[in-house]
Design brief:
2 copies of one chain form a homodimer. Chain A is α/β, with parallel strands linked by helices and 267 residues long. Chain A has 10 helices and 12 strands. In chain A, the strands form 3 sheets. A 5-stranded parallel beta sheet of chain A has the order 2-1-3-4-5, sandwiched between helices. In chain A, strand 1, helix 1 and strand 2 form a beta-alpha-beta unit. In chain A, helix 1 crosses helix 5 and helix 6 packs across helix 8. Chain A is elongated and about 65 Å long. The structure holds a DNA duplex (30 and 30 nucleotides).
Chain lengths: 267, 267
Amino acid sequence: MNSQQTIRLGVIDTDSGFVTVLAKRAEAAGWQLRQATGAVPAPELVAMKLNAVLIDPAVIGDEAWEYLDRICGELPDLGVVVCTSRSTVAQRVRGLRLGIDDWITKPCHPEEAMARVEAVTRRRRRGRSEAEAGPLTAGELEVRPDQFQAFAAGESLDLTRREFELLHLLADSEGQVLERETIYQRVWGYAMAHGDRSVDVFIRKLRQKLEKRSPSWAYIHTHFGVGYRFDPEPAGIVKEEIRAADPNAPEFTDRSQQLHDEVTVGS
Amino acid sequence: MNSQQTIRLGVIDTDSGFVTVLAKRAEAAGWQLRQATGAVPAPELVAMKLNAVLIDPAVIGDEAWEYLDRICGELPDLGVVVCTSRSTVAQRVRGLRLGIDDWITKPCHPEEAMARVEAVTRRRRRGRSEAEAGPLTAGELEVRPDQFQAFAAGESLDLTRREFELLHLLADSEGQVLERETIYQRVWGYAMAHGDRSVDVFIRKLRQKLEKRSPSWAYIHTHFGVGYRFDPEPAGIVKEEIRAADPNAPEFTDRSQQLHDEVTVGS
DNA sequence: CCGACCTGTGAAAATGGTGTGAACGCAGGC
DNA sequence: GCCTGCGTTCACACCATTTTCACAGGTCGG
């Protein structure tokens, strides 16, 4: 469904002109970028949770081959694209055999670089369809994409597909307030018709099933006039946390909502 | 080791000079080649069991884009590399976005073409070779890939080829819920058409044959709106659980439901 | 406190997914 | 050519899920 997830790309290059333009376009496309101007150790690359890196080996120097070899070997899930000026057939062949996924020659159009990164990422995601996404945990909950189910205390919530997709989206955006339109768009896959109450109904079903298996937690919170927020809270603590969170809180840019929360809680 | 598996490559091109040289080198490397001089329908490509195709869209003509789109859409597991003289950035970007894995410009060195095909096919074939060999057991079942058969209590289930492939896939993913599209993709080798019921029909055939030879086990479970899950369960458990739950029935203290249940049961 | 609007809730109605039997078409063997 | 086994497609019945609707309850701005 949401295979169009944003791409997290690392760029290792010192050609500021190229990088700047690329960054601009990538951000416009919703990608997340990390930049560096020298070799980044493998563990740090892992920490960045990148889908791919775009590297100009020239900025690394003599150890470039060694570095590329190590990256490709240690991070089999990372797409590696080399982008460099002047290269021989022999170098490209060597690089590709080493494990590099694509080799582009500068000067190159940023769109093409992006398209190639995209192609590399796509191919990799497809390759491990089985791996799927890892399970999420929140409060007593465990959301398992490989089972299309959520569990509390080892027991299944018996969610239907839509219920699961909705809960998965919410749990994945823990702490964030999601508007109904956004939720509908992401779960149903198309725009919400004006006046559609489906989201509300499914939220209710989720709350019922959550309550049934995990009564002492509050997971889904309503934000009046906005949408819903997923945030596991042990029952009873609710008031304190909201009061404590208040100073930080005023995130919503809508009307004068913040006031409401205070009043509501205070009463 | 794993990088030295033979690659099955399809070449669609009329540039006999290039193709001849490529074929020579590829064969020297132990690859298996299939050649064509025009568009090859998707089903035929499936039958060839290729890892990748190398296509010059010029030999296909006006329908090249349409053809490439169809190939990429219907055969997600097939690597697609385009190799053509003269192309614009816009064309390359369009192609890569379409699902093409790599785009090379002629004239190109055969070694580089091979290296790029190799890069495209590299990732998804990891660890596939070892999975083939071993027999699987689950419940009373024994799945034997070497015979393309499954047995229960020493008796063959008399599975056809497709039935076996399906059961093998399911048993190999024991406990995991597999979507129909995934199943079709992996067993049939290409994308499932919308509304295709083949998977359902074969599941029924499997269930019949399993029931016949191993009546006291439930192997294949339906997940509504999603797909199927293979998980051997002794049939007895199900009945017991239902019977045990029935007398106690009032499971949850929601509204006034229990009353209804009791009345209903009492009658 | 009122009216307007938003959200929660239960149940009916519509939709759509699954099980199943059977007909069809195709290829390989006799 | 005819038969047989296999895979595909179709139609229908049944039922789980989803959507819709009406109303109750809550929240907000005056």
